[in-house]
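Morning. Coffee machine broken again, so started the prediction first thing and wrote up yesterday's gels while waiting. Chain of 453 residues, entered below exactly as on the submission form.
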Amino acid sequence: MRKIGKVFYGWWMVLASATLNLVTGGSFFYGFTVFFNPIRQEFGWNAAVTSIAFTFQRLESGVLGPIAGFLVDRVGPRRLMLVGWTAIGLGFFLMSRMQGLWVFYATFVLIASGLSFGSFIVTNTAIAHWFNRKRSRALTLIYVGYGLSGLLVPLVSIAIDQWGWRLTLERLAYIHWAIGIPLSLLFRHKPGQYGQLPDGEQPLAVGKGGDGQRKAAAADSGAGLTARQALRSPAFWMLGMVFLFQHLATSAVSVHVVPFLESVGFSRTVGATVVSGITLCSLIGRFGFGFLGDFWNKRYLIAISLVLQTAGLVAFAFVTPGSGWLIVLFLLTYAPGYGGPIPLRPALQADFFGMRSFGTIMGLMSTVSLVGGLFSPVLTGWIYDTYQSYQLAWLLLAATVPAVVFILLTKPPKDTGLVTPPCGSATLHYQTVPPFVSAADRVIALVDAKAKT
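Came back before lunch.
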């Protein structure tokens, strides 16, 4: 298997990833906000109690993320994705028949568990292995699916009006099985296993000034830091803190954007349309910053994105039916700022830590950064339940200034001695180790030892 027609196989995986992101974005990441009020109103739950499901989801992602990353580095994406998409559809199906709060929580976690193995870390790792020079662009394109998924949210809202939320969830289960399982079969692990080089480079060009091909081969061979070495570098923790502060805001917005707009007098259909606007306008950031990431400093691009996100949240806090122009301002600032770091994050990780343990490192970093998303949806719901207003929540969550500082201060790992063992892989040794990584360091050491036996 080398090419389908004249197209490098990696691009077919990009297309499949974008399609899967379109489905999960429209139904869960962005689409589930339109289920929020219908479900809680039927059962009489308040906003904070209902939001706890999203905390469980992020907690689960924090736990399973490193496991998914570890497994995809060792067994590849296809088997994990088949399990993941089976679980996603099952979660939607069981949620359509739920009768109580704890079943709601359990099915929510089941969907999130499926996504941990069927999306994000697993697909990002697969794509990152198949591209080197064009990595940022490829990762940008797979997130176009999320950007376009907002177009599905009004359709989900209409479906709830026509069929009710239960039948809508059941039909979403069938859609996830019908699309996710076949597309999972298209994924492959590393191009070297199929006689190819990243980016579709031709091996024959190596003898004719093919420095790019040699670098691509090195990238595919597993050059870079192990998970243990990444944990020992300050860069890992700095990047984790950047995205922790970013997720404080984005997690709350994704859950409460429609309930907030309904609370100030807009209809659910208008709220769903705003969700579509967020995802579509985020394409400005995804495309613009993502494509620039192959040519400009990714850290500076992420800093600009975070400033835009903050400005958008401040505008959102003052939205009323008489100031609809603020929604437009919110969409033109928050959405590109939210979308910009999405393709840049995995591309910057590859620049800093290499591809040797890409999935494991991404999973561990997700655990750190997702802490920001654990409590912000519940806190936002509690603020609304207490004050009958979301304004204070949006103003508090706009404080992403620490993230800007962290990303500007983050530097690539510095080695004090480069040792090349017989296998040809590079090992970096650091003089200083942050004291708070010692426990995690021992866990990773144990995992590495088990992997070698």
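The CA atoms of residues 63 and 343 lie 22 Å apart. Going to sketch it on the whiteboard this afternoon.
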